[in-house]
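Hey L., structure's done. Input below.
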Amino acid sequence: MRIAIVAPLVTRIREPQLGGSQAVVADLATGLQDRGHEVHVYAASGSAIPGVTVIDSGVVADSLAGLLYRHGGSLSTDTRAADQA
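Output:
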């Protein structure tokens, strides 16, 4: 079977920083490949999973950090400030 997996683009999939959802994607892709499936993983630039075809999505994970995380505040304090305005 041919299988495509789209990985979260917020971090690269590489050793040694493999963890969280990246570890799940890497383990799933490797396991399916080991069972004879043709697996392609679409992931952030710089990703690598040994033995699995990884297709560069063209997204540089570091460029997303500013869009996804609030610096110097939290969602709860930002929500309260918006409610008071």
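The chain has a mean pLDDT of 82. The chain is about 35% helix and 20% strand.

-- N.
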